[in-house]
Amino acid sequence: MIRVLELFAGIGACSKALTNLGIEHEIVDAVEIDKYAIKSFNAIHGTNFEPQDITTWNKDIKADLIMHGSPCQDFSVAGKNAGGDEGSGTRSSLLYETLRIVENVQPDIVIWENVKNLLSKRHKHNHEAYIQRMSDMGYDSATQILNAKDYGIPQNRERVFTLSIKRGSQLVKSYTRPEPRPLELKLKDILEDDVEERYYLTDEQVASFVASTERAKAKGNGFKFEPFERERERVMHAVLSRAGSRQTDNFIKESSAESKQSTATTSSSASMAQMDARQRSAQCRVATESQKSSHLAAEGSITCNI
Ligand SMILES: C[S@@+](CC[C@H](N)C(=O)[O-])C[C@H]1O[C@@H](n2cnc3c(N)ncnc32)[C@H](O)[C@@H]1O
Question: How many Å lie between the centroid of ligand 1 and the Cα of residue 273?
């Protein structure tokens, strides 16, 4: 049984991937500061962890596998690009806490997941520093950009995965890079049918987003309120979330049963913008993607033969 320590555990997508792959494991601890995230983690994995701050975490624990999806906001193109340099105090610099913990726990395997922009010219020195420090601690690392849509999930979500294996490990026999496979699931197969009313945009919100789009268009700016078509799209983009602004989220447009036919003709934001608000609310409902595909995150997986 593999002993797993999840750092920046969130809702525990990494552990869920092990479950999905049928790999027997025990979660020895989940280090997550957000009380709601850890509540979800506990509900999903049947555990009972409390919120914990990684900066003060220092338990004497044995683990074979450490998985960490360290905060990515400061590396992300959706953020302010503040970076993650050690000691900089940014959220992304918390990745260096993982190195401190790896040094103490000495697991056989470490998996780090982050946004693709980590490998950009501006941020890649942090990735290189991580690999170097892992090497100094006796680990060989391999990095690969994987897209969820190549591994059975209808979401266009590229992430950098860095796998580090302790030299001379008795646990790891071999490692094979995961081969892409054809996508069989469609987005509509995975979206929930019954979603609470509070997750739908109000008519006023829809009107305000449409107006913002028109203003942005007039100024030549890029902001676009362009909900996904629930019935048509095969693959969802990654959620772009920025605290305090719903405008950067992705939205799903769905037909109400009685207006399916008319909604089918209103497939672009341009045609939405041409409709008046009353018509629009009668014809479509728009929900936030992050809520509707919440279980997508839990299905995210990395496949490696250990
Ligand atoms: C990119 S998310 C990781 C998502 C996770 N892989 C999952 O499956 O949901 C980063 C997580 O780090 C957590 N975090 C941020 N600062 C932290 C800290 N000081 N200690 C512990 N967790 C922290 C955030 O609350 C967030 O849930």
Answer: 37
Question: What is the residue range of 150's domain?
Answer: 2-180+288-304
- Residue 186 located in a structural domain: no
Into how many domains does the chain fold?
A: 2
Å from CA of 229 to ligand 1 middle:
30
| Any ligand 1 atom below 6 A from CB of 34 | yes
Token reading at 149: 């849509």
pLDDT at 210 over 80: yes
Residues involved in catalysis: 72
Cα 262 to ligand 1 centroid, rounded to whole Å: 42
Residue 286: the pLDDT is 67
**4 strand-pairing partners:** 27, 65
We report the CATH number of the domain holding residue 175 as 3.40.50.150
- Shared domain for 174 and 264, answered yes or no, is no
Joined together, the tokens standing for residue 132 give 């170097």
Average pLDDT, the chain: 80
Q: What is the pLDDT of residue 82?
A: 87
Q: How far apart are CA 221 and CA 288, in angstroms?
A: 23
Contacts 24+ apart (CB under 8 A), 84-89: 84/123, 84/126, 85/126, 86/129
- The pLDDT of 63-92, averaged and rounded, is 87
Q: 268 pLDDT band (50/70/90 cuts)?
A: very low
Q: Are residues 81 and 223 in the same domain?
A: no
Give the H/E segment covering residue 109. Answer: strand 109-115
Candidates 32, 65, 110: which one to mutate for ligand 1, based on the most atoms within 8 Å of Cβ?
32
Query: Span 196-200, mean pLDDT?
Result: 83
pTM across the whole model? 0.79
Mind giving me the DSSP string for 213-265? Answer: HHHHHHHT-------EETTT-SSEEPP--BTTBGGGS-EEEEE-GGGHHHHTT
Considering the domain architecture, whether residues 152 and 222 belong to the same structural domain is answered as no
